[in-house]
Design a protein that fits this description.
This protein is mostly beta strands. It has helices at 34-39, 66-76, 103-106, 120-131, 304-307; strands at residues 10-17, 25-33, 83-88, 91-96, 99-102, 140-145, 153-159, 183-194, 201-203, 206-217, 224-225, 229-232, 237-250, 255-261, 268-273, 276-283, 291-299. It is found in: Membrane.
């Protein structure tokens, strides 16, 4: 949003409780003084990141480069302008505040192979700014207060604010903080045969079993099952059956994602479960619940595709 300081110096952020029929109720609010953030000597407009990256998920968000910020800071604090000495494409030196800073001496980590880091002069300037005690990027925790006339604390809000002057240059796209989406996978398991299964019932004086195999992910109500191998007298059964299970996998949490709808609610709630594949051998019964003979649990995270994704 666009603001005009000092006219629009106070930012009010409210947290509401959404209602379907009645008006939404306010849980609490917090007030931010934008004018103080703009004129403080510690430059609280946009927090400084630990590295100057020109691409990637941690790319530079400010519309002023570290070198431009350093020059502006020196001018504001009545210091001399920084002296720049570019040495080569991987090294540079800046003299500021009576001290000499060289990239090869202050940064021991090698240049990234994917070329995300910016020019050496910009990286040295960022190091100087961090040493000067300017505000770094962080997530602040603010206290929520009740409606007007009630100063009681009603909760905490974690947030960050970027205050970008329009005259300083083009505004970069905002940081994408949308929830990470799970990756869709398809699991295929082939069941050939069952050997030496326990026989759980007796027919005409002989131990027999009507065997079948079912397969499902832990926490899922959907299960796949084979056909029934009737009248097995030795505990062996042949199937040649393939299971196909589609599921959503959160690669950051290493969990399987299930969207379940609560009772008397239209909204679905996301549940995370360990990616455990359960394979069960059962004996089919006609007039009572099927008998579970045995179960095998396989942790899908132990497969190389899940480990090195």
């Amino acid at each position: 949003m666009k603001v005009d300081i000092p006219r629009d110096k106070k930012l009010i952020i409210s947290v509401l409780d959404k209602h379907r029929i009645f008006p939404d109720g306010e849980i609490g609010h917090t007030e931010v003084d934008l004018e103080k953030r703009l004129f403080t000597r510690y430059r609280a407009t946009v927090g400084l990141s630990g590295e100057y990256c020109i691409s990637g998920f941690s790319s530079w968000r400010d519309n002023m480069s570290p070198l431009a910020i350093l020059r502006s800071f020196c001018k504001r604090m009545h210091y001399g302008a920084p002296e720049l000495f570019p040495l080569d494409e991987n090294d540079a030196t800046i003299c500021a505040f009576g001290t000499t800073y060289r990239l090869s001496e202050i940064c021991q980590k090698p240049q990234r192979r994917n070329g995300m880091l910016g020019r050496p002069l910009q990286r040295v300037a960022l190091y100087i700014l961090l040493q000067a005690g300017l505000v770094t990027e962080h997530v602040e925790t603010r206290t929520l207060h009740g409606p007007a006339g009630c100063d009681a604390e009603t909760g905490k809000l974690q947030m960050f604010i970027d205050l970008l002057p329009l005259h300083a240059g083009p505004i970069k796209p905002p940081l994408d903080i949308s929830p990470r989406r799970p990756v869709q996978y398809q699991l295929r398991a082939v069941v050939w045969e069952v050997r030496s299964a326990l026989l759980s019932k007796t027919t005409l004086g002989k131990k027999v079993a009507d065997l079948y195999v079912k397969c499902f992910l832990d926490g899922s109500k959907k299960e796949e099952r084979t056909d029934i191998h009737f009248h097995s007298v030795d505990g062996n059964a042949s199937f040649n059956w393939r299971f196909v299970i589609n599921f959503d996998y959160d690669i950051w949490e290493q969990k399987v994602v299930f969207n379940k709808r609560k009772r008397f609610s239209r909204a679905k709630v996301e549940h995370l479960r360990d990616p455990i594949l359960k394979i069960q051998v059962c004996d089919n019964n006609r007039f009572q619940a099927d008998t579970l003979i045995g179960e095998c649990c396989i942790d899908l995270r132990k497969f190389p595709a899940a480990r090195y994704y």
